TrEMBL record:
Signal peptide: none annotated. It is a multi-pass membrane protein. Keywords: Coiled coil, Ion channel, Ion transport, Membrane, Transmembrane, Transmembrane helix, Transport. This is Ion transport 2 domain protein. Residues 125-159 form a coiled coil. It comes from Colwellia psychrerythraea. GO terms for molecular function: voltage-gated potassium channel activity. GO terms for cellular component: voltage-gated potassium channel complex. It is found in: Membrane. InterPro entries: K_chnl_dom, VG_K_chnl. Residues 44-115 form the Potassium channel domain.
Length: 161
């Protein structure tokens, strides 16, 4: 786990700002997500191709059909023109459905957040931390001035007695 964490820090996938907040490089993460998505589509498409073309009566006639089936499963469209009939094909489609929806949904959520500017708690937290630091500095200055005034007032009371 420590090796993975060190690799993540060196990979420029995120930078830690002065407040200790991780700021992710969403461009790199999106590219990696789409590469992973393509790899899973190609791999599970091949598994489906091998499983389905060996069975007579399967709608999957070639690799293009299997790849199309994976794409339609991963996007939840599923036209129904190509479908698996073997257990291995059905498991591959199920896995692609779960993984594809997860990857595409995650990338879509990040994209929507960046484009439409939904609440970014990291930015709000940084602003609040900055404001808190300024308020604490101001309070410290006020405390020092108040202490100096109290000392002067105490000295003045001693002189007048």
């Amino acid at each position: 786990m420590i090796i993975l964490q060190n690799a993540m820090e060196k990979s420029n996938l995120y930078k830690v700002d002065e407040f200790g907040v991780k700021n992710y490089n969403y461009g790199i993460l999106a590219i990696l997500s789409f590469i992973l998505f393509a790899f899973i589509n190609v791999s599970l498409g091949y598994v489906t191709f091998v499983a389905e073309t060996a069975v007579e009566g399967s709608p999957v006639k070639n690799y293009a059909d299997a790849f199309w089936l994976m794409l339609m499963s991963s996007t939840t469209i599923g036209f129904g023109d190509v479908y698996p009939i073997t257990l291995a094909g059905r498991i591959a489609v199920f896995a692609m459905f779960i993984l594809g929806v997860g990857i595409l949904g995650g990338v879509g959520a990040v994209f929507a957040n960046k484009v439409f500017g939904f609440a970014d708690t990291n930015i709000k937290n940084r602003e609040l931390r900055q404001q808190n630091e300024e308020i604490l500095l101001q309070n410290d200055k006020i405390y020092q001035k108040l202490s100096a005034l109290e000392d002067k007032l105490a000295a003045f009371e001693k002189e007048t007695k």
